[in-house]
Amino acid sequence: MERAFILGIETSCDETSASVVADGRQVLSNIISSQVKLHEQYGGVVPEIASRRHVELVLPVINQALEKAGVNLSDIDAIGVTYGPGLVGALLVGISAAKGIAFATGKPLIGVNHIHGHIAANYLQHKDLEPPFVCLVVSGGHSHIVYVRDYCEFEILGRTRDDAAGEAFDKIARTLGLDYPGGPVIDKVSRNGNEEAFDFPRVVFDDGSLDFSFSGIKTAVLNFVNTMQQKGGKWRVEDVAASFQKAVVDVLVNNAITAAENTNSKIITIAGGVAANSRLRSLMKEKAEKKNIKVLYPDPVLCTDNAAMIACAAYYYYKKGIVSDFSLNAIPGLKIDE
Ligand code: KG4
Ligand code: ZN
């Protein structure tokens, strides 16, 4: 059988990325140009700067992805591109590039939901993984527990009611005077901290809901630091970081395991930038394996934004004949189950 080559394009936030994936699971190239350094001085992504940088980078990055994969545009079977959720100006750059290529080559255009991409990153890492399974998707903009019924069928079992998990990591890092993006830094400094040092709040809803809330813990850490600074009390950044991380991870792990039990799932996958967190990975494994639930997650490079995951998700739409027309537009607030 002929192999299917999908060109993936991702520009939803501050990474310009292009990738060629063969038969849905084999990554031939995954070029990621990160703008982290550009946004660092502002402590967060500045949308207009991100869009302008994508405009400069998108074609060179696509070229590199094709070259590294050793394929030409004529070898590509379909073009998958993120159309939401994300920053509108940033999304439009990738969408326009993808449309141009689809128009010129006559190949199908496939709009991909960024969150479906994060979930699909697990297929790239674990070649035998097939739905159904439960996926905990935790990134800078999203925190969801998803039941992946099939490759293109998703059901939300829980979601954050305020901040996303990654957003909480980034904000707490700023409170603690640590670098941006905060997640990887908190992960690193926490290794030298005592996670039992402080008991920050863990929100559990008493209506049985598997939703999350991280705004309370954010305020608790902020109040703690302010009080300590006023009183001149002794505390270590490492201990606060580790205790904060443990409080967030505890809730993510407990809710994901309950979701797996409720749906009789034997597999939990983790996806999104926060899936790179070492404590989340270790605690999820430790607790789930006691209940005979297998835990899978991608390598860190496939956890954070990249185009290989978009190409992988696009492949499964392509196989089902789900393609987009040239009216495809950016949907900044696109939902998982839309
Ligand atoms: O998925 P992603 O690259 O972009 C979005 O779609 O949002 O996720 C970025 C988020 C940031 O908030 C970053 O701080 C967080 O993922 N992150 C981490 C780690 N690595 C990245 N959070 C905790 N621990 C990490 N090791
Ligand atoms: Zn993402």
Helical residue percent band: 40-55%
Major sheet attributes:
5 strands, mixed
Q: What is the number of helices?
A: 11
CATH topology tier name of the largest domain: Nucleotidyltransferase, domain 5
Distance between the termini: 33 Å
Shape: globular
Tell me the quaternary state: single chain
CATH domain class name of the largest domain: Alpha Beta
Number of domains: 2
Q: What are the bound molecules?
A: 5'-O-[(R)-(carboxyoxy)(hydroxy)phosphoryl]adenosine, zinc ion
In the predicted model, the low-confidence regions spanning at least 5 consecutive residues are none
The count of β-strands is 10
Spatial strand arrangement across the major sheet: 3-2-1-4-5
Which structural class is indicated by helix and strand composition?
A: alpha/beta
User: How much of the sequence is in beta strands?
Assistant: 15-25%
Radius of gyration: 20 Å
